[in-house]
Structure formats: structure tokens, C-alpha cells
Design a protein that fits this description.
Oligomer: single chain
Number of strands: 2
Strand content: under 5%
Number of domains: 2
Radius of gyration: 29 Å
Mean pLDDT: 81
Shape: elongated
Largest sheet: 2 strands, parallel
């Protein structure tokens, strides 16, 4: 009957596991920091402009209908609903409304982290995800190798159960 010895973090027998877990935690922290970064101002402008352009303005519909029919005599220029961004864009232009919205929020941008473009963000997230998957597979293989050597080592609480199962399935094959 073999006896399992529990190895705490820092134990020489789990040096490789500690290094893997440290790298995993560093990548998870980097991902969290990356998720907290704002997008660039140009991307915000483009998103606002796209949003404005995609909406049909209520005012445009009312004016067209009034100009094409006899409703112009009784036209109520106080619409029942508030003007939308699309309505304002119709009156002042998409770019002008977008620029004004950005001007309004610009003072609030001071002190925010440096913006990251969507392309850079997506590329780094993909790299992190790929590396995390490989490291987590290595981590579980190391936990099993230590166990086979009679050393019990704790997994991270956030270990991915699907990846653990994948490694166990490989070991059974």
C-alpha cells in the first residue's frame, strides 16, 4: 500500500507545477486587464456612426409623409416621441452628431487605461486562449504525474473541468 504525501506550493517536488500555475495566473490576470481596456476613440466614433445610420428616424418619416400629403396643413412639429439620434443626424448630419457626442464624453476619458484597438485585442485574446489551454493541459498532466509518484498536489480552484477530463481520457487510452 502506497502512502500519498501532500506537497504544498513551494515544495521542490512540485516546482514544474508551480511554474505552470504561475504562468496560468499571469495570463488570466493579463486577460482581465485586457478586458478592462477601452477601445480606441476612432472605433467608438465608427460604432456610434454605424448605430445612427442604421436607425430609421421618426422625424424623417413624419416629414416625408406630411410633404407628400395634405397632412402638412396640420403638421405637428412637436412629435409625440422625443427626437432620436437618427432624427438629430437627419437634421445636423451623421458626422456632426457623432463628433458632438464624442466631445461630450472626451473629458471623462482622462485617467482611463490606454485604449486597445479591436484587432489588437482580438489577436492577443486568441494568443492567451491558446496558451492557456496548452498550459492547463500540461498542468493536469503534471498533477497526475505527481500523484503517480505518490505526491498529492492541489489543482487551481479555477481549473477547467473539460480539460481535466480530456487529460484523464488521454491517460485511460
Amino acid at each position: 500500500m502506497s502512502i500519498l504525501v501532500y506537497a504544498l506550493r513551494g515544495d521542490a517536488r512540485r516546482k514544474k507545477l508551480d511554474a505552470l500555475q504561475d504562468r496560468i495566473e499571469a495570463l488570466l490576470a493579463e486577460r482581465a486587464a485586457l478586458d478592462a481596456t477601452p477601445v480606441t476613440l476612432d472605433e467608438v466614433k465608427q460604432r456610434v456612426l454605424t448605430s445612427i445610420q442604421s436607425r430609421a428616424g421618426n422625424l424623417r418619416f413624419v416629414l416625408r409623409r406630411a410633404l407628400r400629403t395634405r397632412e402638412a396643413r396640420g403638421l405637428d412639429l412637436e412629435p409625440a416621441e422625443p427626437l432620436t439620434l437618427a432624427d438629430l443626424a437627419l437634421l445636423f448630419g451623421n458626422e456632426a452628431i457623432t463628433e458632438r457626442l464624442v466631445e461630450v464624453v472626451k473629458p471623462e476619458l482622462d485617467g482611463l487605461p490606454e485604449p486597445v484597438s479591436e484587432a489588437s485585442y482580438s489577436a492577443r485574446v486568441a494568443q492567451i486562449s491558446t496558451e492557456l489551454t496548452e498550459l492547463q493541459l500540461q498542468e493536469e498532466r503534471e498533477v497526475l504525474a505527481l500523484f503517480d509518484a505518490g505526491v498529492k498536489a492541489a489543482r487551481r480552484e479555477s481549473a477547467d473541468a473539460a480539460l481535466i477530463f480530456q487529460v484523464w481520457s488521454e491517460a485511460d487510452a
